């Protein structure tokens, strides 16, 4: 007897990413991949910036959210969607739900940037504020799903979400198949996991380097321990990276990630300033962390060219002004 396929496969395949790419055609933007002169000088190899901050909703998150939502049956969509988010995934789910004609409820930490909360609502999401951090919002969203029957769209371990995020790597390696190193911000691990699936399929020996801050280091700590670890979380400008990982995202990271570099919050602020001055782009902290890693030597001795994923640009104006007006 032929065994039944796993109804909830643990990891997406390269074929899943290719299917996501087709599904996303005409929905997401094929974002620019541009050489950074100052980072190339620092790294002593060509460094390319993947500008996902120019994506619809201002971050890469629409890729995974739409792929997951568009993959659902009409009956599943009719139940309504629910998710937890630090802000960017919530925007992606809200817009995806609007595009396919269903409703979405998004639980976010009460201290999430006002810009992100406002945009979730603007894309049609029902925003629910939760005291605490991302993990608290996640627990509230799961309780809501259990209570109402709404379908939970996980921010980083749903295989369809991860496959959608993997299209970032697909675009990079299609445009520049000579890229040898990828530097990727890491929160829950969905983006780096999806990119890793692509890199392992398309690139022989492509290295995958993650970037986190000391205050958002759950994946770093878990990889180092070889098991799920919940570190202490400090005040951060990288709210999109804060929160625990889960078994599935950790297992995928163990397969595809070569290492994670930790940087300080001050180094992220410095990277935000340099990206603005040198590149003319506004990067939120959760994106600038990857540039900060390069500035602190993540590519020293690495084979190039390298691509750095700038994941989003949704930062409150007051926070951005405060960072830009501070001297290095």
From TrEMBL:
Keywords: Lyase, Pyridoxal phosphate
PROSITE patterns referenced in this protein's UniProt entry, alphabetically: DEHYDRATASE_SER_THR
EC number: 4.3.1.19
Superkingdom of this protein's organism: Bacteria
Domain annotation Tryptophan synthase beta chain-like PALP: ranges: 27-311
Keyword Lyase in annotation: yes
SUPFAM superfamilies: Tryptophan synthase beta subunit-like PLP-dependent enzymes
GO biological process: isoleucine biosynthetic process; L-serine catabolic process; L-threonine catabolic process
Presence of the UniProt keyword Lyase in the record: yes
Protein name per Swiss-Prot or TrEMBL: Threonine dehydratase
Source species: Longimicrobium terrae
């Amino acid at each position: 007897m032929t065994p039944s396929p796993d109804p909830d496969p643990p990891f997406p395949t390269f074929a899943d990413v290719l299917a996501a790419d087709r599904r996303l055609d005409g929905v997401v933007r094929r974002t620019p991949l541009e050489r950074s002169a100052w980072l190339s000088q620092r790294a002593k190899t060509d460094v390319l910036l993947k500008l996902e901050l120019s994506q619809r909703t201002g971050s890469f998150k629409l890729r995974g959210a739409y792929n997951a939502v568009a993959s659902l049956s009409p009956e599943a969509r009719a139940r309504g969607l629910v998710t937890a988010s630090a802000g960017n995934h919530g925007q992606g789910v809200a817009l995806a739900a609007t595009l396919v004609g269903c409703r979405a409820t998004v639980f976010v930490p009460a201290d999430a940037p006002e810009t992100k909360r406002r945009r979730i609502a603007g894309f049609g999401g029902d925003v629910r504020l939760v005291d605490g951090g991302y993990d608290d919002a996640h627990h509230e969203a799961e309780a809501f799903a259990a209570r109402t029957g709404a379908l939970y769209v996980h921010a980083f371990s749903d295989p369809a979400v991860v496959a959608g995020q993997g299209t970032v790597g697909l675009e990079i390696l299609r445009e520049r198949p000579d890229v040898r190193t990828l530097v990727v911000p890491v929160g829950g691990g969905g983006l780096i996991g999806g990119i890793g699936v692509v890199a392992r399929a398309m690139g022989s020996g492509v290295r995958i380097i993650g970037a986190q801050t000391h205050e958002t280091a759950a994946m770093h700590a878990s990889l180092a321990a070889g098991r799920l670890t919940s570190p202490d979380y400090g005040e951060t400008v990288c709210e999109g990276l804060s929160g625990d990982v889960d078994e599935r995202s950790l297992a995928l990271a163990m397969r595809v990630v070569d290492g994670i570099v930790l940087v300080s919050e001050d180094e992220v602020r410095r990277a935000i300033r340099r990206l603005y001055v040198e590149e003319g782009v506004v990067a939120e902290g959760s994106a600038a962390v990857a540039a900060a890693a390069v500035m602190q030597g993540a590519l020293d001795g690495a084979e190039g060219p390298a691509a750095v994923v700038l994941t989003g640009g949704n930062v409150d104006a007051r926070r951005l002004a405060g960072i830009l007006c501070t001297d290095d």
